[in-house]
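Entry 0007
Protein: RING-type E3 ubiquitin transferase
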Amino acid sequence: MLCLVRQADSVIIEVEVDSKAKGKQCLDKVCEVLGIIESDYMGLQYVGPHGENLWLNLRNQIRRQLPGPPPYRLQLRMKFFVPPHLILQDITRHYFYLDVRRAFIENRLRVSSTHQICHLTALIAQIELGDLDETVGSASALLQYPKYLPTNYLVNCSEDPEHPPQLRVRWRSGGSNDASSNNHNSNEEIITESKDEEQQQVSIETDRTVVVHLCQKVMKEHLSLKGMTTSAAVYQFLKEASELEDFGMEQYFVKNRNGETLRIGVGSTGVLIHDLNLVLKHNIPYASIHLATNAGRCFFLNFVNECGESSALGFKLENCHSASALYRAVTEKHAFYSCETVRNAVTSQYIRDLKGTIASLFNENTALGKNYVFDIQKTCREVYDHTRRVMYQMEMVGKRNSVDAPPVESNNSKEQGCHATACKEIQERLAAFQDSMLCRICMDFDVSTVFFPCRHVACCSTCAPLCHSCPLCRSSISETQHVYLPYTGCELSSLKKERKSSVVVKPES
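Output (structure tokens):
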């Protein structure tokens, strides 16, 4: 069975899998081709029956989820977004950049000011075009800048107050990740913010003036970035984008009981509900959510409001697929960002089709027609720790292969090699344990502080007072408390000294 997986840069990878293969096998093959270890951040998307983008459940068979015969067309996208300092591989950071850049250009990332737009656009230009030579490449760069700018945002056409004050393009939501859904005619979309109705018509020349004026600001920012490497620019772009409210947020359009259309965003800290004018209606952190359910086209949310009272909200979506996708997004993102580990109630939850339901009446343990609801396997911290261990093991294997061992066939040498292998395994376990107990900020002292309400233990007593949000889940900190963990203090400090003393620095020749 052939699967055509499209990357964010429009490059298509052909993957051949078994006819009964599950989604995880297809994703693993794609990541193997790309050399990506941090595959838990990624997912595969497909177009649903109503044109919506849905996440492929990696624990279920591919052919049972996608309509029609193969070849199946999928999209490789980032499913869980984390700050750049938690991404260990350069190739993974590059794919994060591709998805965030696409969200920025499609205006699914709300930016606070025009200056910030110009700065982020200049970072993209630095990554894509490199250093700007003001004497040679300024004209060609001005032609490239418009395709890096957001497709719609409020901008000042001139600093002169005598000119028309502002121009903007109507805001479009980011519920769809398909670039084709955001294509539009700029001449029809641009309107003015002036109160005079006679100024509502804007000529093409004025539109070009606005774009040129904005590109000139981008050029000034681009010149200031001269000398910055591509990797540094990617890191800076992701760092600044991760501070935006809509970073990594899945967006859905719903209707409440009054028939009002709202936008629900499911992000790393919780659920944000806005109206179409981007006025915040509800900000619900994951710690306040009691229950999230869906039934048909409806989605229900029970939570504790700011007054400490229990509240319930109900929404209706376009179809049942979108409702189940919203329910799945809330549950999986809550487990990924806020939990220490994924609970069995999440991993074991499944549904059956009609044939499987009938078969389960006679045999309750049958796997016929069994489809899992969620495919999340690891939390944010578990993905980070797992990647560090895998990269450390790969580094050790590479060093071991680079050293040419003498070919000795004696029994004594075999016994020594056996003891050496066992010793290295113990050292690797000890190093993994030691790293898990270190502060995520300074990486020098033991963790000793728990954050509330997320309950993450990630910092030492020195770094914890400096944090306003949790470094693991980015949720706000309301209270901290000192904790005492086993194997910390003198015992772990002695392990650090032994590990540091084992590192030998070779003098330069």
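Curator remark: The CA atoms of residues 165 and 194 lie 7 Å apart. The two ends are 56 Å apart (CA to CA).
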